[in-house]
Amino acid sequence: MCGIVGIVGHQPVAQRLIDGLKRLEYRGYDSAGIATLDQNEICIRRAQGKLQALQDLFTQDSINGMTGIGHTRWATHGIPSEANAHPHSSDKVAVVHNGIIENYAHLKEKLIKKGHAFTSQTDTEVVVHLMTDYLNQGLKPLEALRQTLADIEGAFALVILIKGDNNTLLVARRGSPLVIGEGNGESFIGSDALVLAPWTQQLRYLEEGDYAIVTPQGSQIYDIDHHPIDRPLKTINISADAATKGGYDHFMLKEIFEQPTTVKDTLDSLINADTETLKIPVNIDWNNISKLTMIACGTSYFSTAVAKYWFEMIAKLPVEVDIASEFRYRESPLPTGGAALFISQSGETIDTLEAMKQAKEDHQTTIAIVNVPESSMDRLADYSVHTKAGPEIGVASTKAFTAQLAVLACLCLDAAIKRGTLTETEAREHLQHLLNLPNEIYGILQKEADYQQVAHRLQPARDALYLGRGTNFPIAMEGALKLKEISYIHAEGYAAGEMKHGPIALIDELMPVIVLAPSDKWMVKTLSNLQEVIARGGIAICFTDCIGRTHIEKDGIPTQIVEMPESHLLTSPILYALPMQLLSYYTATLKGTDVDQPRNLAKSVTVE
Ligand code: M6R
C-alpha cells in the first residue's frame, strides 16, 4: 500500500526521491508526490496516476533542496486525485503518511472550528493541521510531534518536513513499518529496506510507538514512553538489481522463472543435502503442541490450506486454517498448549499481524514464515523461519508461495519426526523428493508453449473454474486467484467433489474448466468430475501426469491434457502451482492488462 521515502542530506534530493518511489511502485498506488525544502520554502510536486506523470511534471518544473519526502498513495480516504495525493502541507509543514488516522473526522471538525482550512478528503491532512497548530502555539517541532501523536489514533507511519528546519525530518511509527538508513553524511527513511537498497544497507528499524528526529548525521529515536533509545544498526543485504526486471517483460515473469533458485535456496536453508536430514533453524517442540492453527491472507492462506493436508496426514497433528481477517473477530477458543503459525510474504499484512498479536495474548506459541527479514511478524513471533525467495515485486505472489510451501513441507517433516509419526527412513524418502524439486520446477517452466496455448482458450472467457482435490484443492483456488488478479477474468477454485453441489450449474460450452489431477489417491475421483464437466459441454483442460494420461486415454475421456511430471504428496502442489501462475500470466498478457500492478491491488496490505 502507501510507500514512503525521505532523504536528509547534502546533495539535491528531488530526483532521488522519485527514483526511490519507483522502487515502491510494487506496493500498489494511484498517485504520487514529493516535497523538498528549498531556501526555506516547502516545494511540492504531486500527480495522479503512474509515476511517469510525476516524473514529467518534475522534468518540466523541477524543485531543489537537500531535504525531502516522497510518497506513493493507495487511496483509502478520498478518491485518487492530485488534491488527495501526498505530501499534504501547510505554510509550516509537509507530511507523508502510510496507514489510517481513525479519529480523523473528530479532529478535523475541531480544527475547522479553530479556523484551519482543509484542501483534501484525506485523513492524513489532520496531521498537517495539528502540527501547524502546535507550532503556531510556539512548541518546538519535536514537542509538536509528541502532542500530535497523543491526539491521533490508528495505525500509521509518518514523515514530516518542517519549514525552517533545513536539516531535519521527523518520523513516527505506530502499526505501519518505517526504517531509517544511515549513509555517508546523509540519512534516509523508507517504508522498507528495498527502497533504500541502492543508498544504504545500514538500517535501524523503528519499533512500535517509536518516533525520531533524523538529521544527516543520524537519528535520535524515542520510544513510546518518550525515552531516548538506541535501536540496533542492522546490515540488510539486498542486491541493488532486486528491483529490476532483469531482461524479462514483467517482474511477475522474472519471479516465476526464479523459482528453481528460490525453492532451492529455501530448501538449502532447511535441509542438509549431504546427509539428507533436516536442519531447521528453530527448535519447535512439536510433540507438546496439541493443535496447530494456521493463519494468513490471500495466496499465503492457500499455502496454509495445503499444509493442513500435510500436517494432518504425515505428522498426525490436528490443524485448523483461517483467513486472518476472519480469525481476528471470530473469538475462536484456542487450546492450551496450542501453536499458531502465521504465513506472510511481506510480514506486514495488518490482519495477519494483528491475528498474531491476538494469538500471543491467548498464550499460543507463535511461529512465523515470512519472506522479509526484520518485518513486523518476523520480529514479533516466538519462532520465525524465512523463505528465501528474495524481494517479490510483482503484486501477484508466485515465488513467495512456492517458497512458503517448501518451508511448510520441511516443518511438517520436522513435526512428524519429533512426534514419531515418520521413521528416519521414511523422512529421508520425503526429503529426497524435496531435494529433487528445483530440477522438476525447471523442467515444468520449460513447457511455456503448452501454457500459452491454454491461455488462448482462457482469454475470451468471462468465467473460469479450477478444480482439484486434496493438496491440489488449494492450488485450484490459488490458480483462480492468480487469474482473477491479473487478467480480471472471474474464476473460482473448487474442491472437485463439491462441483456438483452448485458450480456445475455454470458449466456450458463457454466455460473453461482447469482440472488438476496428479496420479495420487484422489485422481480417480477427480477424473470422474472431469467427465461430469465434459458431459455438460465445458471446455475441459486437465493437468495430469503420464499415469493420469493413461487413465484418460483408456477411458476415452475427450479432454485436452497438459502433461506434468509424476509427483509426490509434498511436491505435487508446488509443481502444479507453476502452470497456474504461467496460465494467468499469459492470459493477462494476451488481454494487455497491467500484470505487475493490477488495478486496485496493493502488494503489502497494511490497512484492514
Ligand atoms: O504479504 P502477505 O503474504 O501477507 O500477503 C497476503 C496477500 O495480500 C497476498 O498473498 C495477495 O493475495 C497476493 N496479491 C496474491 O497474489
UniProtKB/TrEMBL annotation:
Tell me the Gene Ontology biological-process terms attached to this UniProt entry: amino sugar biosynthetic process; carbohydrate metabolic process; fructose 6-phosphate metabolic process; protein N-linked glycosylation; UDP-N-acetylglucosamine metabolic process
Give every SIS domain span: 282-421, 454-598
The first-level EC class reads transferase
Q: Tell me which residues this entry annotates as catalytic.
A: C2 (nucleophile), K603 (for fru-6p isomerization activity)
Q: Where is the Glutamine amidotransferase type-2 domain?
A: 2-217
Write down the superkingdom of origin: Bacteria
Task: Report the EC code(s) recorded for this entry.
Answer: 2.6.1.16
Q: Where in the cell is it found?
A: Cytoplasm
Q: Which PROSITE patterns match?
A: GATASE_TYPE_2, SIS
Q: Would the keyword Zinc-finger turn up in this protein's UniProt record?
A: no
The family database entries (InterPro entries) matched by this protein are listed as: GATase_2_dom, GFAT, GFAT_N, GlmS/AgaS_SIS, GlmS/FrlB_SIS, Ntn_hydrolases_N, SIS_dom, SIS_dom_sf
Q: Which Pfam families match?
A: GATase_6, SIS
- Alphabetical keyword list: Aminotransferase, Cytoplasm, Glutamine amidotransferase, Repeat, Transferase
Q: Name one GO molecular function term.
A: carbohydrate derivative binding
Summarizing the function annotation, the protein's role is: Catalyzes the first step in hexosamine metabolism, converting fructose-6P into glucosamine-6P using glutamine as a nitrogen source.
Protein name per Swiss-Prot or TrEMBL:
Glutamine--fructose-6-phosphate aminotransferase [isomerizing]
Lineage, opening ranks = Bacteria, Pseudomonadati, Pseudomonadota, Alphaproteobacteria, Holosporales
